[in-house]
Amino acid sequence: MGKTGDSLGREARADPVRSFNRWKKKHSHRQNQKKQLRKQLKKPEWQVEREGIGRLVQSYAQINVNAITRFSDFPLSKKTLKGLQEAQYRLVTEIQKQTIGLALQGKDVLGAAKTGSGKTLAFLVPVLEALYRLQWTSMDGLGVLIISPTRELAYQTFEVLRKVGKNHDFSAGLIIGGKDLKHEAERINNINILVCTPGRLLQHMDETVSFHATSLQMLVLDEADRILDMGFADTMNAIIENLPKKRQTLLFSATQTKSVKDLARLSLKNPEYVWVHEKAKYSTPATLEQNYIVCELQQKISVLYSFLRSHLKKKSIVFFSSCKEVQYLYRVFCRLRPGISILALHGRQQQMRRMEVYNEFVRKRAAVLFATDIAARGLDFPAVNWVLQFDCPEDANTYIHRAGRTARYKEDGEALLILLPSEEQGMVQQLLQKKVPVKQIKINPEKLIDVQKKLESFLAQDQDLKERAQRCFVSYVRSVYLMKDKEVFDVSKLPITEYALSLGLAVAPRVRFLQKMQKQPTKEVVRSQANKTIEHSTSSLTNDEVEEFRAYFSEKMSILQEGGKGLEETEYRLDSGTSDEELEEEEEDHEEIEEKLGKARESQTQSVPNTDEGQEVKDVPVQFLDGDDEEEDGPGDDFLKVKRRDVFGIDLKENKTLQKKESSKSSVKKKVTKVAEAKKIMKRNFKVNKKITFTDEGELVQQWPQMQKSATKDKAEDDDSGGINLDKAKERLQEEDKFDKEEYRKKIKAKHREKRLKEREARREANKRQAKSKDEEEAFLDWSDDDDDGGFDPSTLPDPDKHRSSEESDSEETEDKISDTKKKQGMRKRNSSEVEAVGPASHHRKKAKWESLEPLDTGLSLAEDEELVLHLLRSQS
Ligand SMILES: Nc1ncnc2c1ncn2[C@@H]1O[C@H](COP(=O)(O)OP(=O)(O)OP(=O)(O)O)[C@@H](O)[C@H]1O
C-alpha cells in the first residue's frame, strides 16, 4: 500500500500540467463563488445614497458650532460641498456658522446679521440639503419657496442658488413681476425651488389653477422686514395661509423690527433667534467708514456733482427718495457730463431695463448708480467704494441697508449721508441709537461746483426736461411730507423756492397740499401732539394698528387728491383740491407711498427718545477722498452748515374713523371719473359753482355754466333748494336750447341785414362816381356848344339806385331766408338784369333826341366826330 501511495505521489509530481489544471479548476470555482456572493451583496445606488443620508442626518445632532470653521465641517452632501468649493466658498461666516446647523436640524430660524455677512448662503445651504435629504425629484413639485422683497434681490438669490446648487438635480425657477404670467404658469409646477417676489407669487396662487404648494417643505423669507415695510403684510398673510402648516421656515434680515417678530410669531414654530451681532459695538460692518454732511437743500445737486467730479475712478451708489428725482437728476447729470458713466435704477423702469442696469453696474469698475430704495436691500454689487445718501433715509434701518451696499464681506467701503439742517439732529440721534458710528465732515465751499446755471439753460431748451424737473420737485416735497417721522422730516422747513431754482426751474411749481398745510398750522401742531402721545403709548404692533396706518396713508392720499380734509366739504369740492394732472401724479406715486406705508408702521413702534448722545457727533473736517482718491481723481472736497427743525403730525384716532369711511379707497386706489364726481355733487346737493370772467372794460365775457336766459330761468332758480333734479334739469336744458336757437337766428338775420346795407352803400357810391364822370364829359360837350340844351342828357336816364332800392326793399323779407352764397349770386343776377332793363330804354331815348336835333358842328373831322359819339355811347352803357 505504501508503495502504491508513493508511486502515485511520484506520478503527480511527474505530471505538473495535470496538477495545474486541477488547481486552476478549484481557483476559478472559488472566484465564481466570490463573484456571485459580491453580486448578491451589491445595493442599488439609491440605497447607498439613502444610507449616506442617514449617516448625515445622524451626525446633525453632533454639530458643534464652536468647532466649525469651514463648510466641510458641517455634515453636508458631497454635491453641495462640491458646489460651494467650485464657487470659492470654503470658510464660513458667523451667521452661516450659527444658523446652518440649526436649519439642518429642521428648526425654524430667525436670523439677523450685519449687511454683507453672508446670510444668503446661510439659508441656501439648508435649502439644498433639505431637498437632498428627501431625495426630491422634479416629479415631487414645489419643495422650497424663497420670497424676496424686490425683483433684483430675487434674481441675485436665484443666481447664487444656481451657482452653489449646480451639482444637484433639482429644478429652480425665478418668478418675479414684469414677465409673462402665462409663460410662468406653464412652468411653475415643474419647479422644485422657487425664488419669487410676494406679489407675483400671490398672483399665481390666485390665477394659476394648476399651481399648488401642498408638498412644500421649507419657506424662506429674505429681508423679511422689508417685505413687511413694502406693505406686503396682507399679501404675506394670504400666501402663508396657502402653505402647508407642517413646514420649516427661515427668516433673515440685517435689521430686526417689531413687525418681523410679529411675523415670526405668526409663521415660525418655536423659532431659534440668531442675532449674530447683537452684542457687537456697532450694527454696521467694521470696515465701513461712515460720515455725514449737512447742507442746504438748494446746495445738494452741486454737492453731488462736486462729489462725482472728485471720484471719477470709483464705483458709487447714490440713493434718492423718489423715482422722479432719479429720473430727472439722471438725465441732468448725463448732460452735465461729470466724466463717469451714470446708471439709473428705479421701480418705474421696465423689468428688462432693470436687469440690464443691474448687470451693467455689476460689470463696471467705475460708475455711479442713481437709485431708489429698491437697491437698498440685499443687492450684492461687487466692489462698491461709496454709498452716498442724497436724501435722508426714512429711518436708521433704511440707512443701515443703504450703507451696507458697500463694505461687504471683509471689503472696505465708505458711506456719506447728506442731511438738511432740519434733519440733522433727529437723524443723527436715531443712528447713534442704532449703534451706527457716523461722523460729521465738512464741505470745502471753494471746491463746490455750482451747476444751477447749467441746469437753467438745459431747462430753457428742453420742455420735457423742465416738466421732469417740476415732477422731481413735487415728488421730493411730497416724499418729505409723507414721512412718518416728523422729528426728522418737516416739510414746512424746506426752502421751497430756493430748491426749485437749484433744480433749474424759474419758479417753484405749485404744491397744493403745502398751501393747504400753511393755512392750518395750528391744526397740524395739535395733531402732532396727539400723534406723539399715541406713539409713546404704543409698545407692540397689533393688526388693528397696522390697519390704522394703512388708513393713515390712505387718508394722506385722499388729502392729496381732495386738496385738504380740514376744509368744509363744500369748500373743498368747489375748490377742487387736486387737478387731473396731480391725480395722475399721485397715482404714479402710489408705489412709493406703499413703501412709506410700511415704514410708518415700523417707525410707530420705534419712537426715538431725545438723548444727549446725538450731541456727541464730532465736528471733524474730513476730506471726501482717501489718499489714493486724491491721486486718481483729483483733490477731495469738504462741506457744511447746521440748523434746526420743527414738527407736525396727524391724529391717528381721527384717521381711524376716516379709515372706515374710506376703507374701499385704502386698499385699491380708484381713478375718480367725472361721472363719479358728478354723482357725488348730486348726493351732496351742492350748487354748482359759477365762473365769471370780465374784459378789461368790465364787461361780462364768459359765464360758466352758461347763464340762464330762457323764460324758465326764474322758476328753475326758485326750485333750486334740493340739489339737482335730473328730469327738471333736462327740461330746462331743452328750453334753454330752444331759446338759444332763436337768439342765434336773430343774430344771423341782423348780421345779414347789416352786410346788405353795406353792399348797397358801396354800390351807391360807385354810381355816384360814375354819374360825376358823365357830368364832366357833358360839360366838355357843353363847352363846345353852350347854347345847345337839347343834347344828350344822361340825367334823363333812370336812376339805377332808385330802381334797385325799391326792388330790394320789396324782396328783403324773402332774401332774409336765403343763404349768403345764394344771395350773392342773386344780387349779381339782379345787377345784370338791371343793366339789361335800363340799356334799351336809354338807347331809345337817346335815339329820339338825336333825331330831333340838327347835326352839331363840333369843329372836328367826321371821323373824329364819330369817335366822340362812340365814346359817349360806350360810357353811357
Ligand atoms: N463663506 C463665504 N466665503 C466667502 N465669501 C462669502 C461667504 N459668504 C458670503 N460671501 C460673500 O459675501 C458677500 C455678501 O453676502 P450676502 O449677499 O449673502 O450678504 P447678506 O448678509 O445677505 O447681506 P445683506 O444684508 O446686504 O443682504 C457676497 O459677495 C458673498 O459672495
Number of strands: 16
Which regions contain 5 or more consecutive residues with pLDDT less than 50? 532-670, 713-723, 776-854
Beta-strand content bin: 5-15%
Helix content: 40-55%
Biggest sheet layout = 7 strands, parallel
Question: Total helix count?
Answer: 35
| Cα distance spanning the termini | 183 Å
The small molecules bound here are:
adenosine-5'-triphosphate
As laid out across the biggest beta sheet, the strand order is 3-4-2-5-6-1-7
Instruction: Indicate the mean pLDDT.
Output: 73
What Rg, in angstroms, do the CA atoms define? 47 Å
Instruction: Quickly give the structural class.
Output: alpha/beta
Mass-distribution shape: elongated
Family: Belongs to the DEAD box helicase family. DDX10/DBP4 subfamily.
Biased composition (Polar residues): 603-612
EC number: 3.6.4.13
Domain Helicase C-terminal: 287-449
Task: Please describe the topology of this protein.
Layout: H1 2-14, H2 16-41, H3 45-60, H4 78-86, H5 94-104, E1 109-112, H6 119-133, E2 144-147, H7 151-164, E3 172-175, H8 181-187, E4 193-196, H9 198-207, E5 218-222, H10 224-229, H11 233-241, E6 248-253, H12 258-267, E7 272-275, E8 288-294, H13 300-309, E9 315-319, H14 323-336, E10 342-345, H15 351-363, E11 367-371, E12 386-389, H16 396-403, E13 413-419, H17 421-433, E14 439-440, H18 452-461, H19 463-482, H20 496-502, H21 512-519, H22 521-537, H23 543-562, H24 569-575, H25 580-588, H26 590-605, H27 627-633, H28 652-661, H29 663-667, H30 674-683, E15 691-694, E16 700-704, H31 713-719, H32 726-784, H33 800-816, H34 820-852, H35 862-876
Parallel strand pairs: 1-6, 1-7, 2-4, 2-5, 3-4, 5-6, 8-13, 8-14, 9-11, 9-12, 10-11, 12-13
Antiparallel strand pairs: 15-16
Helix pairs in contact: 5-6, 6-7, 9-11, 14-19, 18-19, 23-26, 23-28, 32-33, 33-34
